[in-house]
Write a structure and sequence with these properties.
Length: 244
């Protein structure tokens, strides 16, 4: 807050801090803390500030500020007079440890970035969960996935997401005629299908195609299946079609 925001009808930040720090009257303290945005105090009261600090007849009368930015600045100051000191101490501590402002900013943004990376995974898992709310059968046959298919699909997706360098893409989910699950991802002319069988008697498969290119990749049991799925998901995001 600079001189441009002040005129001879308002008090300065330093004066307001002094008043808040020295005055112990509960009524005035309450006014300062709970009603800082409603106004600032007239300079005509400042001339009697010394008497006010010791006399019981002093009263603070709010006056509407001619400058909203000044009013907001004072409200922030009164609401937390120690914020600036805390910020300086934090900065000093960071400088002492050799931590750059860029590093601090990246550290604070990391949770948001991680949330963005997993947003597609959470959407896909939510769509899988919706399949469990379907009736067991409908006019076309089985409508709800088996427990094996659901748990296998969820496990594969979660493990693949942890291995990916790209943000996990959103996928759609459907149930096949046996109670297995199919998860489909589409980007442009590329499609990737994860086929999870209804039981362990069959093998999970990944089917990828783009234009005339076709790839069918069986997924072995164990952690290797998640690695292969993650590979295909990244190829989908990159636009690559060849195996390897």
């Amino acid at each position: 807050m600079g001189p441009a925001f002040l005129n001879d009808s308002t008090i300065t930040v330093t004066e307001l801090k002094d008043a808040a720090a020295l005055h112990q009257d509960p009524e005035i303290a309450c006014h300062l803390v709970t009603q800082p945005v409603r106004g600032v105090f007239s300079r005509r009261r400042r001339t009697g500030l010394g008497m006010a600090l010791f006399g019981p007849s002093f009263r603070l009368e709010p006056k509407t500020s001619p400058c909203p930015r000044l009013r907001e600045s004072l409200a922030t100051l009164v609401g937390g007079l120690d914020l600036y000191r805390a910020a300086e101490e934090t900065l000093s501590a960071s400088e002492g440890e050799g931590v750059s402002p860029q590093a601090v900013a990246q550290e604070r943004l990391a949770p948001a970035k991680e949330l963005g990376r997993k947003e597609g995974l959470e959407v896909t898992l939510s769509r899988l969960g919706e399949l469990l709310n379907e009736p067991e059968t409908d006019d076309y046959g089985i409508a709800r996935p088996t427990t094996f298919a659901y748990e296998t699909a969820v496990g594969l997706l979660r493990k693949a997401a942890e291995l990916m360098h790209f943000p996990f893409p959103r996928g759609s989910a459907a149930v096949d005629h046996e109670g297995g699950i199919g998860v489909t991802w589409m980007k442009g002319d590329r499609q990737l299908h994860l086929l999870v069988p209804a039981s362990a008697q069959k093998q999970c498969m990944v089917y990828f195609y783009a234009g005339k290119d076709r790839n069918l990749d069986p997924l072995p049991p164990g952690s290797e299946a998640a690695r292969i799925l993650a590979n295909w998901l990244e190829r989908l995001c990159k636009g690559r079609t060849s195996g390897g």
